[in-house]
Amino acid sequence: MLGEVLTAIITPFHQDGTVDVDSFRRLAAHLVDNGSDGLVVAGTTGEAPTLTDEEKLELFAAALDAVGDRASVVANTGTYDTAHSVDLTAEAHDLGVDAILAVTPYYNRPPQRAIVRHFQEIAVVTDKPVIAYNIPSRVIVNIEPETITELAEIENLTAVKQAHDDLDQARHIVDTGLTLYAGDDNLVYPFLELGGAGGICVHTHVWGPQTKEMVTSYKSGDIARAKALNDEMAPALELLKIQTNPIPIKAAVNLLGHEVGGYRLPMVEPTDQELAQVRACLEKAGVLQPVQA
Length: 293
Known about the structure:
This protein is α/β, with parallel strands linked by helices and 293 residues long. 46% of the residues lie in helices and 13% in strands.
């Protein structure tokens, strides 16, 4: 297993819009020091659609250099073009990443049999574990249970990042023998109840130690402690609802002093009201001191 708590790390930018690799390295180390067993690099939270392949590969290499000796590095290589995804997967494999994450092809809405073909083509160019990312809220198409069963037959497709709150479908993933990761942060606890491994999370930029303790507590049999920790992280889930991710989490990380810069269009800076809401969530959670009047 690649770990219980993986963080889909944001991509820091300089003021001129270029990737801030030094800030990325510092943030990667901070996350691994604070509860993350691994990192997913250049995912949705990392503003992947705006990154060039060269930038993605630079970030993969930077993550390996910064934390690869003590955490898993998962490269997001999925696009809506199978050939492009395959090429990027092969390059990430050559860099030595620990695993590959690939999303269901978005926008072009492939049929279920095409989804299977897509993942087969990606998996054949690497012997690393491949994680299928099912997020129907963003890509429109759901990976149906019957398709999950077919994906489980791919030798090195070993896990699913499931951003879908249908518990029966999540249970089916576990039943196939695939590792189940929560793809939405509010699903980590309910998926643990189904036999899930943990989560590939966003809120762990701020709540990493608590999330790790929650997962560890649950698996050690301390269900009450795990439930209490899950309830205590309610402000984290409130924060992620303020605006489309990664707008709120990047604002939060900046407020906490990590200096990760702004966004690339079509992502934009939070409004003053949104920023105030982000600050309020951090204050409510006790991780940021209230501003004195």
